[in-house]
Amino acid sequence: MSRLKNLRCYLAGPIDHAVDDGVGWRKEITSWLQKKDVIVLDPCDKPIKNSYFSEIEEEKLKMMELKSTGRYYELTRRMKEIVHMDLRMVDVADFLIVYLNPNITMFGTIHELINSLNQRKPTLVVIEGGKQNASNWLYGLMDYNFMFDTFDDVKSFLEQIDNETIEGDLTRWVFFE
User: Fold this and answer.
1) Suppose 39 and one of 8, 23, 34, 137 were both cysteines; which one would form an S-S bond, judging by CB atoms 3.0 to 4.6 Å apart?
2) What is the pLDDT of residue 55?
C-alpha cells in the first residue's frame, strides 16, 4: 500500500539567513517525496509563479535592500503576502517536514511549526546536529518521537508510514481511501 500517495507535505525551514536560501535540502527531499507520489509545497518554489511572492535569489536581495534603506512600508507589504501564502500552504498540507538549525536565525519556520502543531498535523522535525541540539522548549511543544537527527531518519520513518509497517498516530495522520 502507499499511504503517502497524494498527501501534501509542506517543507518548513530557514530561508532569510540560509546560505543557499534553504533550497538545497528542499530539492533533495522533494525528489524523494515525489517518488512516493507526495505533493510537495515548497516556499522556495511556490505553486503560484509570480516573482512578487518569491523570497529567494533576486527577490530576497530586493527585500534586503528595502530593509537596509529603511523602506519598511514596502518590505512589510511584500512580506505580508509571502507570510500569508506560506501559512496557507501550512494550512492545506497533510504533514510537514521542518528543518531546524540552531545556528541560523529563524522566525517564519517557528511560526509555521507552531501553526502545524496547533492544527494537530504530523510535524516531523529534523534538527541539525541531532535531537540533543533542540531547544528544551521544543520538547514541551511536541512528541520527541517526531524529532529526527537526519533527513535519512525522516525518510525511514515515512517509508514505514507509507507501507504501514508502523501505524500513523491517527490523532494526527488522516488517510483517505
Assistant:
1) 8
2) 61
